[in-house]
Amino acid sequence: MLPKMKSEEEKPVHMTTAKYATSIGVLIEGSLPRLQAKMVGSDDYMHKCLWAVNPLDKYFKECKDSWDDYQKDWRDNQGYDLPWIEYPYTHEHVQGWFEEYGKTVGPTTLEAKAEWIRQMTEANPPEWDGTSSMEWWKGNDERCQEMKSKVKRKMEG
User: Fold this and answer.
1) Superkingdom, according to UniProt (predicted)?
2) Which of 19, 108, 122, 131 is the most interior residue, by most CB within 10 Å?
3) Which residue ranges make up each domain of the chain?
4) What is the pLDDT of residues 83-107, one digit of tens each?
């Protein structure tokens, strides 16, 4: 059965959930392997796009400005007279998060990713032999075709 997304009063149908998007992604990638092959490199492309339109300095400033705007609104428009609280994070905090992520999870830049892939490949070379695999298929193609014919005849009845 195909996954379905139903609209709700405050959630139109085009606003999908993570569960729905994951189900659809698995279904499409499993059904269309060549499409998946065409998507190789799209994660790097999206990484470049995201950082081009939303660099860290710009994003950090938007977060800080939003924090300050909320405090101004509460003070000026809602009557709260509370002490001003500075934005609780600095660029150093955020940079530290990136460094920790890089150490514990994985690379945070495309350059670091390329280096990581190089190191992983050197440490763990591929364990398959593409040439032998192709030779096996060449040698067994007749048997595969024969089996396919038998199945077809059986299905035709």
Assistant:
1) Eukaryota
2) 108
3) 1-40, 42-86
4) 999 999 999 999 999 999 999 999 9
Contact 58, 43 (CB under 8 A): no
- Please provide the distance, in angstroms rounded to a whole number, between the alpha carbons at the two ends of the chain: 28
pLDDT of amino acid 138: 67
Cα 97 to the chain's mean position, in Å? 19
Token readout for 150 is 């038998």
